[in-house]
Amino acid sequence: MALGGNGASYEVWPCTDCLPWHFEVVQADDGEVMVREWHAMECALFQQLIADQ
Ligand SMILES: [Zn+2]
User: Fold this and answer.
1) By C-alpha distance, which of 16, 25, 21, 26 is closest to 40?
2) What is the pLDDT of residues 18-50, one digit of tens each?
């Protein structure tokens, strides 16, 4: 999946740890496209992601 005009791409793989996983493509006011991932609160991968920040 390639987003935006600069050829940048963002790969999103389904989370194997939780069912509610999905992603959202969000376009900011300045035109920047971001991908937001959603996980279950108790998802181990999600806990790992927020612990890394
Ligand atoms: Zn997850």
Assistant:
1) 21
2) 999 999 999 999 999 988 999 999 999 999 988
